[in-house]
Amino acid sequence: MAQQQQSPRSAPRNTWRGLPDEEVRHYLHQYRQDLATIDDDFRLDEETRISTRAYLAMLVADGEREWARRERAAQLGVPLDEERFTPAFLDDLKARIKLDELCAYELGARLGPVNAAGWRHGPCPICPSQRRDCFGVFVGDETRQRYKCFSCGAGGDAINAIRQAYGESFVQAVERLARTGGIALPEVPRPTPPRRLLDLAKDGAADA
To answer: How many CB atoms within 10 Å of residue 179?
Structure first.
């Protein structure tokens, strides 16, 4: 059998997620062309043609999902990987977490009872302020829970509290909160590594 030559058009042995935008566009265009013309290649036997067509269709579908993911992240103005968390998912996640308990456990906040406005106050666990009531957690509405230090300005929602406590990224904080709340995370797509299978199939047909 003749030694197999690497095609100059071969994609790197990588996942779609690891490729820069220009390479995703480049290989996706190639795979679409291959899929559109595979039935015209008389060098392939029927079995090879069927299996290669199916694999190319899978590569194109994976590439299109990855490109759609990047477009969604750009439209939302968020980094890649954050786009998988929809606003509805994040709202549900934060509503299931009792923020006052989270701040007490993760930040070490010592909070007083709930006042008429729905706030629990206490000293700030983040800054060295001596004011006893500069830190507050609003618990009057589970869909609008938030914390705020009126001295150092630290504040936010449950995700911010986790990031403050652990120095984690947005994605890591969401994953930690989901585990705490027993909420299933959106699935992370695991696309097929893009390879020039059509070139390999052609080489195999030529060597047969």
So the answer is: 10
Question: Phi and psi (nearest 5°) for 101?
Answer: -70, -40
- Per-residue pLDDT tens over the stretch 14-24: 478 778 888 88
In this structure, the number of other CB atoms found within 10 A of the CB of residue 135 comes to 29
Length of the chain in terms of residues written: 208
pLDDT at 10: 46
Sheet with 119-122, edge to edge strand ranges:
119-122, 135-138, 146-149, 155-156
Q: Is 0.85 topped by the overall pTM?
A: no
Span of 4-18, 76-90, 106-120, 121-135 with lowest mean pLDDT: 4-18
**Is 158:99 a contact under the CB 8 Å cutoff?**
yes
Distances from the Cα of 121 to the Cα of 22, 106, 149, angstroms? 51, 16, 9
Provide CB contacts within 8 A for 27, sequence distance 6+.
11, 19, 63, 194
Model confidence over 146-160: pLDDT tens digits? 999 988 888 999 999
Angstrom distance (rounded) from CA 135 to CA 154: 9
